[in-house]
Amino acid sequence: MNRHEFIDVATISLSSLLMRDSRFFSRSVSSAPIGDVVGGADVDIEEIRIGSVREISARTPIGEFQAAYLVSQWRGRDVPTLLYLHGSGEDPFDFGRFSTNSFHRLFGTDGDWDVNLIALRAPFHDRSAREYVRAMDDLENFVGMIATSAALIEALAGRLRATDCPTVLAAGISLGGWGVNLHRAYGGGVDRYVPIFAGARLGELFISSIYRKLAAESARKDPAVFRRVLDFEDAFTSTDADDCDPLLARYDRIIEFERQRSAYTDSTLSILEKGHVTGALATDALRTHVQRSVEKTRE
Q1: Which residues pair with 59 in a beta bridge?
Q2: CA nearest neighbour of 124 among 137, 109, 106
Q3: Quick check: 174 and 194 in contact, CB under 8 A?
Q4: pLDDT at position 17, please?
Q5: Residue in 143, 260, 238 with CA at minimum distance from that of residue 185
Q6: What are phi and psi of 84, to 5 degrees?
């Protein structure tokens, strides 16, 4: 085990100890498959408004979920628009001096991006870390969180297209990457997808990766449930469109490289020689990867 893997294992092991009284899916592992949920999700955005956080409500087959978006930079309708979805537990709208969220690190601290920037907030990320973990005691909430994120991408992309935006990109890291890939599997209207540290075999997160330690022991007794509800690789790989710029970390013990790379056999996969935690902190490398995708849309 190298240092990148060790940091991933140590981070999740510590989180597991801190969460010992509140584990993922401790109440229920029952849910409709994630593909069915995103396919039946409905988000209505009449117009994209600039200047403040905009709350939205998503109606899905498993209930209603609340999300939000913020147009943090608007350069006009003649430049690409980048939709960005954050990682698990992040507050994407925290732009304070000591903020560590990935949107702020990638786009708020370096240079001048000649794009429109829209930050998305997934359900359950408008609360404390403890409250977020408690919400994850039900698999339906986890499914609804990611499906709603994909549905929000769909709604925003649709409105942007309606206003003649030339190009739409969707990027995300970890949790955000899963939302981006889920949209690619079941949605439309996005020109390029930039999933960072994500794949299409979401069930493996709670079956084979170190992240399984965060799930209740009772939930881990039947791995087939996670694969049935969470995996969407067949839908993701059913299209051969050259529209995906994935990035995986070789030593990632959470989003496992060897288990997730199969989704990208028809894409040019970029590889970071780091783990999940160390990769997430490699801001320059992540920023460069996203910038390259933006530049592809200008060619």
Answers
A1: 42, 64
A2: 137
A3: no
A4: 85
A5: 238
A6: -125, 130
In whole angstroms, what is the distance from residue 229 CA to residue 232 CA? 9
Q: Which among 215, 189, 218 has a CA at the least distance from the CA of 202? A: 215
The first and second tokens of residue 125, run together, are 């990320």
Going 178 to 182 to 185 to 190, the CA torsion angle's sign is negative
Tell me how long the chain is: 299
Do residues 120 and 85 touch, judged by C-beta distance below 8 A? yes
The answer to whether residues 102 and 280 touch, using CB atoms and an 8 Å cutoff, is yes
Q: What is the pLDDT of residue 47?
A: 86
Radius of gyration (Cα) for the chain, nearest Å?
Answer: 18
Q: Which residue has the tokens 């899963």?
A: 178
Spell out where the chain has E strands. 42-43, 54-60, 63-73, 81-85, 116-121, 168-173, 192-196, 247-249, 270-272
- Those residues whose C-beta lies under 8 Å from the C-beta of residue 69, and which sit 6 or more positions away, are 48, 53, 54, 56, 118, 119, 120, 121, 152, 156
Q: Which pair of structure tokens corresponds to residue 6?
A: 């060790």
- Quote the pTM value: 0.96
Which residues of the chain fall short of a pLDDT of 70? 109-111
CB of 154 within 8 A of CB of 69? Answer: no
Q: Which of 99, 101, 105 is nearest to 122 (CA)?
A: 101
Q: Which backbone phi and psi does 239 adopt, to 5 degrees?
A: -105, 140
Q: Which two tokens stand for residue 173?
A: 């890291």
pLDDT of residue 197: 98
3-class DSSP state of 214: helix
User: CA–CA distance from 54 to each of 44, 111, 141, 288, 292 (Å)?
Assistant: 12, 26, 21, 29, 29
Q: Average model confidence (pLDDT) for the chain?
A: 93
User: What pLDDT was estimated at residue 111?
Assistant: 58
CB 197, CB 171: distance < 8 Å: no
First to last CA, the chain: 41
